[in-house]
Amino acid sequence: MMKSQIAKLGHVAIHTPDLEESLWFFNEVLGLQIVEQTNDTAYLRGQRDWEHHTLSITESGQKGVDHIAFRTSSADALSELADQFETNGTDVTYLDAGVESGQGEAIRIEKFGHPYEFYYDVEKPRAPEDQRSGLKNRNYTEAVANRIAPRRIDHVHVQDPSETATDHAVWLEDELGFRLNERYRAEDDELWGWWLAVTPLPHDIAIHREPPGSSEGFHHLSYHLDSLNELWSAADILSEHGIEPDGGPGRHAITRADFLYVSDPASGFRIELFAGPGYLNFEPDWEPIEWTEEDIGGETNHQWVGQGPAWDGLEYVN
Q1: Strand-by-strand arrangement of the 191-197 sheet
Q2: Potential cystine with 43: which of 53, 147, 197, 292 (Cβ 3.0-4.6 Å)?
Q3: 120: left (phi over 0), alpha (psi -120 to 50) or beta
């Protein structure tokens, strides 16, 4: 397998018709920390995220996802990736430093209908002094966290029509150097789902297949929690706020992690709280695990314990 120029998932940028209501959900209910806010955009991150933001929310009157961003392994890797895309015939948009708050130069492409951003230089502001942990290997003190308090960004999950889903997964492997950890083969003997990673996590990105003619879409962004008990506490807190989870708490068969899904009432953007982390993969000769309905049930109902979310997603905002 090629050495990937991608280091990790960086952030997701979304749109909302009501920034104040979305901040109520993401900041007050979930407990993501607001790092910076302009007139129409807020930048947030988890308790132990280091980068400037792992989620940005822009009030635009629309609902949808603007882009998915990955950080490269170096500044040179970013330049090499841009050259690679152009050599392979992919249109590349170059962004100056500061176009996105807290971030250096970046590039954006669209592949299989998904808007991807890549960057290397990024600010890593420490938490304000009165919110800072006394432990140097943490950012925010637990004293300013609510009881959900997502720890760090974990992964994204997207969806593709059956015409392009396989090609998208192959592109992530062959051109970006992702490792395929797990996959699901449906009753029609075609692959339905792919779980791929550039880190030791079970997945940094997953894809599932939708029927022919469907639109590409974004299913969820995941943040990590430390334990299953924290998912039950999160479910309690959501209930107190009158918010019903989209699925869970439960346990995935694929990736073997505990989960709870919930959507922002204002934007419709779905968050998965992902505890575990399931497993960490350090094997240099990993062979993908393949699942079928005989193993764990149908493609849209393959949880080990509990009920998963609906498989509808959000569109991308042009």
Answers
A1: 289-291, 179-185, 191-197, 205-210, 152-161, 217-225, 270-275, 258-263, 247-252, 303-305
A2: 53
A3: alpha
DSSP 50-92: -SS-SEEEEESS--EEEEEEEEESSHHHHHHHHHHHHHTT---
Contact of 263 with 310, CB cutoff 8 Å: no
Taking the CB of residue 149, how many other CB atoms lie within 10 A of it?
A: 22
pLDDT band at residue 83 under the 50/70/90 scheme = very high
Question: DSSP code of 100?
Answer: S
pLDDT digits (tens, 9 = 90+) for 202-213: 999 999 999 999
Cα separation, 222 vs 285, whole angstroms: 27
0.90 exceeded by pTM: yes
- Compute the C-alpha angle 165/168/173, nearest 5°: 130
pLDDT at 1 over 70: no
Cα–Cα distance measured from residue 62 to residue 262, given in angstroms and rounded to the nearest whole number: 19
Question: Which one is the CATH code of 152-305: 2.40.50.140, 3.40.710.10, 3.90.420.10, 3.10.180.10?
Answer: 3.10.180.10
Q: Which two tokens stand for residue 300?
A: 């849209």
| Mean pLDDT across 109-116 | 98
Per CATH, 6-144 and 152-305 having the same topology is answered: yes
Q: Using CA atoms, how far apart are residues 65 and 264, in angstroms rounded to an integer?
A: 13
Cα 245 to the center of its chain, rounded Å = 18
Max distance between CA atoms of the chain, in angstroms, equals 57
